[in-house]
What we know:
9-stranded mixed beta sheet
Amino acid sequence: MQETELILKNAIVITVNKNFDIFEPGAIVISGKKILDVGYEKEILSKYKAKEVIDCDGKILMPGLVNAHTHLPMALLRGVMDDLRLDEWLNNYIFPIEGTFMNGNTVRLGTELACAELIKSGVTCCNEMYYWENELAETLTKAGMRGLISRVITCFPGVDKIEVAKKFELGHEFVAKYKNDSIITPTIAPHAPYTNSEDTIRQSIDFAKKHDVMLNMHLAETKNEVKDLSDKYGSVAGYLEKLGFYDCKLNFAHCVHLTDKDIKAFAAHKIGVAHNPESNMKLASGAAPVTAMLEAGVNVGIGTDGNSSNNDLDMFSEMRSASFLAKIQADSPVALTAKQVVYMATMGGAKSIFLDDKIGSIESGKCADLILVNINTLHNLPRYRHNPDGLYSQIVYAAKSTDVTDVMCNGKWLMKETKLQTIDVKPLLAEAQKFTAQVDDFVRKVRSNS
Length: 450
């Protein structure tokens, strides 16, 4: 009998592997940071003995959720200004507030608060796009979360007030520091077409190719943005082709307004997409053609976007919204099934950010990024067993983020029995309240002068 460190038993194991295997009662064997084996409990216990065996009490044991698009420090800006057009919201409030108040210290504060929120809702990995990349990486590392962290590029100094040449210089240093890190993956992020010139886009593409890192960008979020691209380049796909995007690994957030031609190009070039249904609905950006993208073979993950445009980081809410929005859009109740949505929030998300060799499913050799979800709750009972896919329906249509009881990332517990293990929230909230008092005064002045 093989000895190991940890066995999680008596669980409903949803693997999200190639065959969508479900083991009930199932067990997982963990050695260090990796999954050693998975299967039916009886078979696992006949082959392995462990220093520690944890009874999961019949909970769902599934891959940690992948939040495919976030702006973590903006946890400090939740509710700062709502119910505005995107351009008015950004230019009149968000950008001025960020330029005045965001710095290394506030980025750490907002990011740590966001990490706590993510962990509590079962997220073990996020694709993050914000400034002060070193502070972001250090805070995620402290929290124990896996993250893709970008050096953000704009053709003007921007929120961090750094000149363009210096941005790329800092990006090179950041990649060198984290290229082989176990949980932080560096990326380059030209923010959006409308905040970059062709020159800074091409520099970003060259950077991505040189360092073999993913390029991360907002794209096709609004009709006006797409009109501008179409007037100049013929289409979104024309923009990507002319500037040479297709030569590197790409993940685009939103992609609300894509044509069939665009979608075919995305599939052909293996471009990942981060679908942000709640942010897109709240800002009235539209409904991304997710069903068409999936049918074409595009790797689509699910993201929350930032707290200030959502206004939360709840991936369970986001999964439910993704399915419902697609059904309304297609005028069909069979569009974007619960099983598809769970895939998008786990393995599909991992593929969209090019980490599917490490995370996204429960398989031997993959990282031990796992969550336990209690479905023995009033809002999730009774349970019917005639359809194995009913478990996916329970996760998407009935489960809530508060049903997540335990979270593990890279073999380390980040939450046990609903108690955070790496973050003390109370002092962070006190600091956040001081920050909001300053921003309140700033917004009052802005509104009185408008």
